[in-house]
Write a structure and sequence with these properties.
The chain has 685 residues and is α+β, with helices and mostly antiparallel strands. The protein has 19 helices and 34 strands. It is elongated, with a radius of gyration of 26 Å.
Amino acid sequence: MGRDICGDWNSSIGREWLVTNGLGGYACGTVAGANTRRYHGFLMASLKPPVMRKLLVAKVDIRVEYRDASYELAANEFADGTIAPRGFELLESFRLEEGIPIWRYALADALLEQQIFMAPGANTSYLRLVVSRAAAPLTVHCTPLVTYRDYHQQGRGPQPLQAVAGSGECTVVSADATPLYQLRVSAGTFTRNELCYWNFLHREERDRGLDAIEDLWGPGTFTATLRVGEPMVLTAGTEAAARAADDILEQRRARSRLLIGRLPGSAPAWVRSLAIAADQFIVRRDPPDAPSSSAVPSSSAVASSTVAASATVAASSTVAASSTVIAGYPWFTDWGRDTMIALPGLTTVLGRHEDAASILRTFGAHVSRGMLPNRFPDGGETPEYNTADATLWWFQAVSEHLAATADHELLEDLYPILADCIDRHVQGTRYGIEVDGRDGLLRAGQPGTQLTWMDARHGDHAFTPRVGKPVEINALWLNALAVAHRLAASLGKAADQRRFEALLARGTAGFGRFWNESLGCLYDVLDVDGGTANDARLRPNQLFAVSLPLCVLTPAQQRAVVDICARELLTSYGLRSLSPNDPGYTGHYQGDAAQRDAAYHQGTAWSWLLGPFARAQYRVYGDPKRAQGVLEPIAQHLDAACLGSVSEIFDGDPPHRARGCFAQAWSVAELLRSWIYLEVQVSNP
């Protein structure tokens, strides 16, 4: 991106970047350098991976002295509308290079390059500056603006923090002198100068109807004089000793090249970007009793602890025994439904089989009464089980992993849990989830609950409760039975095989009830609220009856479903959650929390649904290139919101502005998985 985007305030603050650490921590911000969200920051640490996220360093403002002139590279927006300084006007270019964000600032005849990245397996962020071109030395002054708060909150008023200065470093300590995190530079000095900075505006929070003002604190300034080719690295982290920046940078780039190398050679640039983005969502999950990394040794202890800290970091950077998937950045943690939908695209299609097995085991260990957890709360509380589909998606993720690996050990470990899940659903489990013996279909829900992926809720009001027999839940149920039947056969469990076969036959016959002859598509929910009424609203959920491996519809019915969804729901960036012809349709996702929740599944377009739609279209029409064409507009989106990643949702109405989380796991995964699947069909017709 050149000056036409970088130098324009609205264009550069509307484009965001993201780097992650494999723990749930991250750094993110805007191309302009101003923070527009409470979630933006140079160091967002996850103190109990992947939760207990704390914003430690909000940003680092940089000033450069060169040939008797001073240049402010920073950008900030304040509550009164002031934008100062305006460093984005000096920004010559911005790019992502193998997932690393790179800024280039033109200062007269000098060119200064900035990179930001994180250490895998550590709550450590790096800001690397290097002079690419200059006729004289440059002196850089880096002022970190810091805090210590939960990532969902805003910091106001004086900060209860202090600075303990060292040689080229600073330890930020709490009011009771507990060390919290450290800042250091590879070259230069630190000058303590504690100041408060007031009234930063987070405009995205304002637009979301939330508190939008933040106050920050500065411990002082790091200063260094640089010549051409000489880098300076500012490091912020909770670890006592950071790994060498150049080693981390090369490790990250090598990881990106490895993931790209696992794609078909024909993969275009936007698909390669998705493969790099996929890596950001796979993180470590620590056991509940693991200690949190909420403090660092004081400055005097740094030298003696270097070896031990390095060993700890090295160990944490390996594939953990317990892995999980972050549903979306910047505010989601790991959700069972999102994880299982995303898992094939994040892991299996990229050959990350150890990660897939670890994640499948992690969630399998938390199955309760035949149900996978829906959410692990941010504070580490007991998992929540309010989902009717996460367990059924787990069957699909297990099936795809086993098809790719023939992992017999995992099969033997998980099969008893999978079989018990089927039995529990037949007998009945939480929230009224049980098989109706009259038609073999799965019903779910009780008044006030929302158990499907359309789970928007504000206070006690569920906007799309869908209590009854939702169409995608039953498509998933039939597919789960087919998976269980196949796995039982492979293990020689004849009694289980016969039981699952009978359930599948009964459910298949019952699924015919979903056909709505008058509209030529499927009902969205049967037996609404336990009665006899059926919900005929046109939603994308019926697509799963065509896109999942087992499809019990006739060819004519399959085509009708795909065609009506294409006609009324398909947009360039996703499928609308409700037809625009419906009186309840809402075309824009905006306003306060209640307004946004009300629009979430009432017309908002969801990018992850492009994957199932493309696969369903291929099943019906047999043209993989045509189906891939449905996915291709996302290539433009990758340069327009969170660069290199895919947003959670979009307005249903043109121009389909990106909304919600700026980087969503199932969005990236389903697009990547579907493009690869279709490319294989192109190569092997």
